[in-house]
Specification:
The protein has helices at residues 8-15, 32-38, 51-60, 100-110, 140-152, 162-165; strands at 22-26, 43-48, 66-70, 83-89, 111-122, 131-134. With 166 residues, it is of the alpha/beta class. The chain has one domain (8-165): Vaccinia Virus protein VP39 (Rossmann fold).
Length: 166
């Protein structure tokens, strides 16, 4: 059985190199993956809603380039257009269904215009711990347009609900 920690950082680096990047990890848990990300990234902001997990992460996985914040995916406690990479690692499926759209909008809000958003989620086949990055090619232009519009102050439509509901 392959676990998420086995090759996690290598898999992310194949999607987007993290060197010199400011990374936001949404749902950082105990901080074990945060430390892996921080080995390569310039700075990591780790957001976690569970106070006990956040306390553990701060106590056991603190590094100079990591900032741990309490918060939730649909109301991220970070500024607009500040992160080159946003990573949801086994956390997006924990967002309540009625707040999924807002969680994506929040990820877009905090991403830079050239930013990348990565969703790692359990697969329906094989090992539960085998994860894949999700990408919606039919929305890639829309995401880029939305990010550019948001970061330059232009008015743009919010994400279509169909992205979540099918």
């Amino acid at each position: 059985m392959q676990r998420i920690k086995d090759g996690y950082l290598d898999h992310i680096q194949r999607i987007v190199p993290l060197a010199q990047k400011h990374v936001l990890e949404v749902g950082s848990g105990d901080g074990s993956r945060t430390v892996q990300i921080a080995q390569s990234a310039a700075k990591v902001t780790a957001v976690e809603p569970n106070k006990e997990m956040m306390t553990f992460a701060r106590t056991h996985h603190q590094r100079p380039n990591i900032l741990y914040l309490e918060g939730v995916a649909d109301a991220l406690p970070v500024s607009d257009c500040t992160h080159n990479v946003v990573i949801f690692t086994l956390s997006f499926h924990h967002v309540p269904a009625d707040r999924l759209k807002m969680a994506i909008e929040e990820a877009l809000r905090v991403s830079t215009p050239d930013g990348r958003i990565i969703f790692f989620e359990p697969t329906f086949e094989g090992s539960f711990f085998l994860t894949v990055p999700f990408f919606f090619p039919e929305y890639s232009f829309f995401f880029r347009f939305w990010l550019i519009g948001f970061c330059t102050g232009r008015s743009v439509p919010s994400i279509k609900t169909s992205l979540i509901s099918g």
